[in-house]
Design goal:
- By secondary structure, this protein is an alpha+beta fold.
- Helices cover 24% and strands 24% of the residues.
- β3 and β4 form a beta hairpin.
């Protein structure tokens, strides 16, 4: 009996201790739980229940990463149906220059500047490399020759500097091995061009460099009021060149502005055949120079207008017309100057031509 009670007491003590341990364990878990809540509210460190009890921690389930769908559709090569055909275009070629009406076309051999050729009185400086004794300065004689040491007379007139250099070097090979010759034009005196006719200063001009036609007109101080550019011409070697002076000066056609050569002669014709004669009841009857675009009214005003007894309705223009066979006929053109002057009807104000004669009759009433 006593032994039985002792066993019961031992069992009771054991269960008592076990109960106390569970209570302490629960208290401990409560403290840990509060710590977990505090840690979760404070910072980035997150504690889970599995971390508190590692024995019961489940294995993580690994999920396969699903790649994000590419919303962009890949570019596909365009089908042959959608391809745009590119036509091959031929390069444009410059169209041939057309000859404008009333303008003379000058060949390029006349308009382009050529290499200078020597003439009489040109001053030359000739030297040979490594031969200072052969260096000399000499003029081209009136006969066109120069005198050079060792080789004597050499024809220089009509040659370019390169041609004269080659000619001298060829003749010096008899005395010098591979001579190197230098030809320098010190002064040009051989370009002489004459201009005559209706210019303010007609003369023969000696220039020291090649010049163009417009440069020569500037030297001659321009044209007089009697100049007829349409009939003017240029002589070269006894032949007329097809230069249109009127197109050059009045229409700015600079293709006619050619390079002049020594011996050229420019003649500016007068406009005697192109003058306008004004006669009849005019305050100052006279002969006036024809100008392009001149009308009957312009000519009358240049003659100080009509007299008090003039009959403007009877104004006539007498014009000489030449037929293809060479014969000429006089054409009488009536002009209603009364309507032009008093009514301002400019459609009756006809244009004049070179050589026209204007006659204004007298009124008897």
């Amino acid at each position: 009996m006593i032994r039985f009670l002792g066993i019961l007491f031992s069992v009771a003590c054991v269960f008592g201790l076990l109960g106390k341990g569970q209570v302490e364990a629960s208290e401990k878990a409560g403290k840990v739980g509060s710590t977990f809540l505090m840690a979760q509210s404070k910072g980035p460190f997150v504690l889970e229940a599995d971390d508190l009890f590692p024995a019961t921690k489940a294995k993580p389930v690994l999920k396969k990463k699903v790649p994000a769908k590419n919303t962009r559709t890949p570019l596909k090569p365009a089908s042959s149906k959608n391809k745009t055909s590119v036509k091959k275009t031929k390069p444009r070629t410059k169209s041939k220059a057309r000859k404008s009406k009333g303008t003379r076309v000058i060949p390029s051999s006349v308009t382009q500047k050529k290499a200078y050729v020597f003439g009489p009185e040109d001053d030359l400086d000739i030297s040979v490399w490594e031969n200072p004794d052969l260096k000399s300065r000499m003029p081209v004689r009136p006969d066109g020759f120069i005198s050079f040491p060792l080789i004597g007379d050499v024809l220089a007139q009509g040659l370019t500097p390169a041609q004269l250099k080659e000619k001298i070097a060829g003749r010096l090979k008899k005395f010098i091995t591979d001579p190197i010759v230098t030809v320098v034009v010190k002064k040009i005196n051989s370009i002489k061009i004459s201009v005559a006719g209706e210019v303010n200063e007609p003369d023969s001009y000696q220039v020291n460099r090649p010049i163009t036609l417009l440069h020569l007109f500037a030297l001659a101080q321009g044209f007089t009021e009697k100049a007829d550019l349409k009939r003017s011409y240029l002589l070269r070697n006894g032949k007329k060149l097809g230069i249109d002076f009127f197109a050059l000066v009045k229409q700015d056609d600079f293709s006619q502005n050619i390079w002049l050569q020594s011996g050229d002669l420019i003649f500016i014709h007068d406009n005697f055949d192109g003058r306008i004669n004004i006669m009849g009841e005019i305050k100052l009857p006279q002969v006036v120079s024809f100008q392009e675009g001149m009308t009957v009214l312009d000519a009358i005003l240049m003659a100080n207008g009509l007299t008090d007894i003039a009959k403007p309705e009877g104004t006539k223009v007498y014009r000489k017309n030449r037929s293809p066979d060479g014969s000429s006929k006089i054409q009488i053109i009536p002009v209603e100057m009364g309507r032009v002057i008093f009514e301002g009807d400019l459609s009756k104000n006809i244009r004049l031509q070179p050589g026209d004669i204007i006659h204004v009759p007298r009124s008897f009433f």
